[in-house]
UniProtKB/TrEMBL annotation, chain A:
It comes from the Bacteria. It comes from Syntrophus aciditrophicus (strain SB). The keyword Transmembrane applies. The chain crosses the membrane at residues 7-28, 40-59. Keywords: Membrane, Transmembrane, Transmembrane helix. This is Hypothetical membrane protein.
TrEMBL record, chain B:
It comes from Syntrophus aciditrophicus (strain SB). It is found in: Cell membrane. This is Na+-transporting decarboxylase, beta subunit. Keywords: Cell membrane, Ion transport, Membrane, Sodium, Sodium transport, Translocase, Transmembrane, Transmembrane helix, Transport. It is a multi-pass membrane protein.
Length: 64, 400
């Protein structure tokens, strides 16, 4: 699994997802309810999805 | 010697002495309970849930007696007691009260069942085809989303509407957890309706599939040769990272996420004593008490609540819309893939694990005995569990 060439996929995916969490849970609550707050939350959730989806993609490339 | 026969047989005496509506409801529920036991035995309904539930339902409505203060009730359990001193008293009288108080009111039973489901699920099917699995699972949530505004329009509060709409996710523990979190006063009718309908999934979804998908499309054979092999360590790492992220995002639904992914990690880690314990003792004892207590909670007083009719209508609508949504997702994938994808797999996006996956395989097998879709259906199925948990988390986070 942790072939040298692929291990960074795991780290990058996790970091992207965690940065999404930070946007949703830390940054968004700092702004008053409105469009900007919604946009930050949306961006955060999108980053979480991208991050989590990059993990199985990394696994597929391991086997191919 | 003068014997008062009615005081000897208090179950009958309470039936005669009660409001006729209650008496009729009790008789109907007793007959319904007996029917559930029969249908469970015959395999028409899910025996694991329906046999204890039917027996509980029949007997709780038969066991009504007079208390010293003249009121009627049973010594099974009282779901409405909240006062601590009254609870301590009643824990020593009602035989099922300890299990109800310690495992139902805090959502523990849902989490225990979820650990069991996690041990049974192979997340490798999701990781092998992540996009198609999640795409179908998202469409399989159509009922859980669409019924929410409908329930609000029916006069329910947003919390009640969310607890009812999540029935569309077709995941029993999730429905219990969400209703306990958002509208504990409706937990009993929602739980009963959810488990009743989930048992019907197996019977009704094949007809829905046949009505919406032509036989030519149902018979499509899928190419399973290109599916990548996912190692246990990859599954463990993915599960650990995902559950951590989900708990950070939705702490309210943390117990559900942890339970499910804990089951998956234990399975992949190959800890045999734990796997055997969870797969057999824990899962079956939780399911047994879940069924029994849901049946026992089915007293006439609960069922005669007018809100039950709304839940019946909205719950069935949610499940049907989710089924249709899953199939729409399947049809879309059929066209996206150049007409190579079997759209029946879409029904497995509805997360009634593993029932809907089995339904998909059964229907496909009837159309083409050589076609195998089970691995892909299980992928959609497990994704469905994850998306339902996420949706439950969103509802709980926004509305609690």
């Amino acid at each position: 699994m942790f072939k040298q060439k692929r291990q960074w996929w795991w780290v990058i995916g996790t970091c992207i997802a965690l940065s999404g969490v930070a946007l949703v849970r830390l940054l968004a609550p700092e702004y008053p309810p409105g469009t900007l707050r919604l946009a930050i939350k949306f961006g955060g959730y999108t980053l979480v999805i991208i991050g989590l989806f990059s993990l199985p993609l990394a696994m597929r490339k391991d086997d191919e | 010697m003068n014997i008062d026969v009615l005081s000897l047989f208090q179950g009958i005496a309470t039936l005669v002495g009660q409001d006729p509506t209650f008496a009729v409801a009790r008789i109907v529920l007793m007959l319904l309970g007996i029917s559930f036991v029969y249908l469970g035995y015959k395999g028409i309904l899910e025996a694991l849930i329906m046999i204890p539930m039917g027996l509980g339902m029949a007997t709780v409505n038969a066991s009504v007696l007079f208390f010293p203060d003249g009121k009627t009730g049973t010594i099974f359990l009282d779901p409405l007691v909240t006062d601590p001193s009254a609870l301590v008293n009643i824990l020593q009288i009602n035989w099922l009260q300890p299990i109800y108080t310690m495992s139902f009111t805090n959502g523990l039973i849902a989490c225990l069942v979820f650990i069991g489901i996690g041990v049974l699920c192979d997340i490798g099917f999701v990781l092998a085809r992540p996009f198609s699995s999640m795409f179908l699972a998202l469409w399989g949530e159509l009922g859980s989303v669409a019924v929410f505004p409908l329930a609000v329009a029916f006069g329910m509060t947003p919390q009640e509407a969310a607890a009812t709409a999540i029935v569309g996710g077709a995941d029993g523990p999730m429905v219990l957890f969400t209703s306990l979190m958002l509208s504990p006063h409706l937990f009993v009718p929602i739980g009963i309706v959810a488990y009743l309908y989930l048992s019907l999934c197996y019977g009704l979804y094949p007809y829905l599939i046949k009505a919406l998908i032509p036989k030519k499309m149902r018979a499509i054979q899928m190419d399973l040769k290109g599916m990548p092999q996912i190692t246990p360590l990859q599954k463990i790492m993915f599960s650990t990272i995902t559950v951590t992220i989900l708990c950070l995002l939705f702490p309210v639904a943390g117990p559900l996420f942890v339970s499910f992914f804990l089951g998956i990690v234990i399975r992949e880690a190959g800890v045999k004593p734990y796997i055997e314990f969870i797969e057999t003792t824990l899962l079956y004892s939780s399911t047994f008490f879940l069924g029994l207590l849901l049946g026992v909670l089915c007293e006439a007083g609960t069922i005669l609540n007018p809100v039950v009719l709304k839940i019946l209508i909205l719950g069935s609508t949610a499940l049907m819309v989710s089924g249709v949504g899953g199939l729409i997702g399947g049809i879309l994938l059929y066209y996206f893939s150049g007409k190579k994808y079997n759209p029946v797999i879409g029904i497995a996006g509805v997360s009634c694990t593993p029932t809907t996956a089995k339904v998909a395989q059964k229907v496909v097998f009837k159309a083409n005995p050589r076609a195998m879709v089970m691995p892909l259906a299980l992928g959609a199925n497990v994704s469905g569990v994850i998306t339902t948990a996420i949706l439950a988390g969103i509802y709980c986070t926004l509305l609690k």
